[in-house]
């Protein structure tokens, strides 16, 4: 994507969201409308994800969290589940070198233990190899569920308190956040959901407390850099108030 293309769209590159999270929904409907199989829809969905990763690099987004597979998605037909996970594993294996060259840091959030060993091995290897890269952080949410994530954090905290490594009083919203899969990463600034569904579907429940939401009826395989830029422009036109009044925000009290 050229700088000219970005400028033409009136996007302020200094105010691009630092962290974008996306519920990549609508692959099945995209395929059905074309008389294709749902799996072909997922293939096209993976291509859309690649386009969006490239666009985020060009725009200077620092973190991209992609909801690729939810805890609840395990209940889909086995054939679809296997195809989806297989597609992702194949992609990571084939593109590892390219990801390294582009300085992309891959991180996984979700319950890796739910995945077959060979897939887990690919994921662990990719995370280990790309982990210290300084470019775009791509957080892949795989076998992810927001409620399970919160429960797992609570269990880790109980262990910490029982081992007397922390006290009950040291548990605050800030310290609690560090026990989530997202660890020290900042919360998303912008959450996008495609396909017209107006729900969160168990994604990042804790982290999106003050995230700006952008819903579009575009089905995920049709989502591209154009619409990503539109979402960023809409984000830039919002006023994030975090509970303060508009006049406090204009006086710059938020940063104090
Ligand atoms: C999103 O597309 C991909 C995953 C949930 C893995 P869907 O497969 O949910 O597509 P629709 O919602 O059935 O159209
Ligand atoms: C959410 O989409 C999960 C992913 C995009 C991976 P779903 O298609 O599973 O969500 P629901 O079932 O429509 O809420
Ligand atoms: Mg769906």
Structural description of this entry:
It is a single chain. With 256 residues, this protein is an alpha/beta fold. The chain has one domain: Decaprenyl diphosphate synthase-like (Undecaprenyl pyrophosphate synthetase), CATH 3.40.1180.10. The chain contains nine helices and six strands. α3 runs parallel beside α4 and α4 packs parallel to α5. The longest helix is centred in the middle third of the chain and has 24 residues. The chain starts with a helix and ends in a 6-residue tail after the last helix. The protein binds 3-methylbut-3-enyl trihydrogen diphosphate (2 copies) and magnesium ion. One 3-methylbut-3-enyl trihydrogen diphosphate binds next to β2.
Bulk shape: globular
N- and C-termini, Cα separation = 37 Å
CATH superfamily: Decaprenyl diphosphate synthase-like
**Portion in helices:** 40-55%
Helix/strand-derived category reads alpha/beta
User: Biggest β-sheet: count, sense, barrel?
Assistant: 6 strands, parallel
Which parts are unreliable, with pLDDT below 50 for 5 consecutive residues or more?
none
User: Helix and strand string, N-terminal first?
Assistant: HEHHEHEHEHHEEHH
Domains (count):
1
CATH arch. level architecture: 3-Layer(aba) Sandwich
Small-molecule binders here are: 3-methylbut-3-enyl trihydrogen diphosphate, magnesium ion
The count of DSSP E runs of length 2 or more, i.e. the number of strands, is: 6
